[in-house]
Amino acid sequence: MLSMLFRLPAIAYFAIAPLGVVMAVTLYFQDRAEEAEKAAARAGKPPALVKIEEFQKGRNVGPAHEVNVLGQVDVTRMVELTRTKRGVESDRWVMAPVYPTNATSNAEPAIGQMIQRGHVSDAALQKLIAAEGAFGPIMVLDGQMVEPSNERKALDEIADKIQLAPTALLVDPFEEGRTAGLAPSTSGRDTAIFALILALLVAGYGAFRFFSERNRDRLDDPEGGYI
């Protein structure tokens, strides 16, 4: 199957390469915009701390989608989700439902969810605790707001374990602190550069196929050869 990718007509590679360039440029500018927002967030203070039941998306979100909410986390329903690829772990999430600070029961759908990518230690979680609620710790969740569409597969996998309200706030907290959470990253830029290099390689291979096919046609057609 893989070998078929190297046997396409030259025009196919010339069609694919520009799409790769467009994707690389788009990724680059998206990354630059995100890094600029993180720089703006680092230069300022975090949004004012607000109880999650009083959170308003139009008022309580800062640069880089930063939010700072106080919520009651039901740690008994914390879920650790992993994905593997060829026996190697490729993704990990730690998720837990978040309820109003004054909630006395977890029977209703959660109005928020802590959704942490990667590993998170008990010590890091302990640092987030500000008080004790009726059925779980009340944590300061300073982090980035997560769009549900960005983690749709993970959310769907645990839908039977954690029931969320339609307008639930998803927060990826800065478990290692705000400075580390908003630190500059080169991963997006590196991805864009890799995509650009790949697109150029595709274009180069397309040119190689084009001239190889043209030369082969000349050799197969004596009338079309050089005098």
From TrEMBL:
Keywords: Membrane, Transmembrane, Transmembrane helix. It comes from Sphingomonas canadensis. It comes from the Bacteria. This is SURF1-like protein. The chain crosses the membrane at residues 192-211.
